[in-house]
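Run log, item B.
One chain of 339 residues. Sequence copied directly from the ordering sheet:
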Amino acid sequence: MTKDELVKLVNKEDFLEYMSSLSKDEVQKLLGEKFARMIGYDQKNIHHCYDLWNHILHTVDNVDKDVVSKKDITNLKIAALYHDIGKPDVAMYKPERKQQVYYGHAKKSEEIAKEELTNVGLSPEEINKICFLIEHHDDFISYHKELPEYQKGHEFLREIDEKSVAEKMIENKYDFEKMGLNKDQIRIACYYYAHGNAPTFKFPNGKDTRDLEIDVLDISQKMMSDEYLKEYIPTLEDYNNLMNICRADANAQTELYIENGKTLCSRKEKNENINSVEKVLEEAYKKLDEVKCVIDSSLFLNNVIGENQKKIEIEKDAKKIQTDYSNLEKKEIKDNGCK
């Protein structure tokens, strides 16, 4: 398939009807085996009411054409076409949850799309924008308009405001893995730079931020270097387009799923969350400029990590003193012949 053919295909007025009418062999001939394998692929997940192929087709069809330029609408529809193409490669059934999960599918889909779109003949600029949308279409899946009190401070769930959204933008701009940080440390670093203070949440393994120290001074210096910028830095327009993809994706999922009288997922809630993220995008994006400023890392190190470290050392000293005193008492009892 050529670039012109792909562009013409995704922009067909009757895209959903036309693509739904194709046989598996016809889809394979038109788009290749990785698309054909999605036909009839049961996603086995409460969030999905369609098989993988029909989910893809409805997502493309759901892209809002009225809020973006003609060029952007093409990029958005191509991104929607590829956004879940990597799911079969990472699928894993979870018996305890009685459903299938697809950890890492966005990154896998991006890798497949990048190779195929390069072969089709799209420009590097077009591929960068499209692949950003594919790789990050689930970025805000854990973001909620409101969280109950017991879930606030959760290491995974986040309540939507400009600071929490800025966390993800910071993560998407800087290559923290290249800096040597693991997943949990990246979460801590992004929280700190977005909020201006250390997080207090705990991780599933029971560790808190004291167990996962980060060298803010070293990280800040690296963030000021072009060496640690991501290959593609998304614009504010990219994030607005991302909301379009997220909404199209959500509207191609289960409308309402209730189990034991409890709503586990709904299109309405997902759309409300997306709308809330969209409202704070501009303010969140401004925080990226604040990160460029000189950060008073010593304040963080001294007041946050320093205080935590002091507390740990005091606790260690107290335990040591208690142990030494206990040993001394035992020795005195022994020396005095007591039992």
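Observations after the first pass:
- The first strand starts at residue 92 and ends at 94.
- Confidence is low (pLDDT under 50) at residues 296-300, 331-339.
Flagged for discussion on Thursday.
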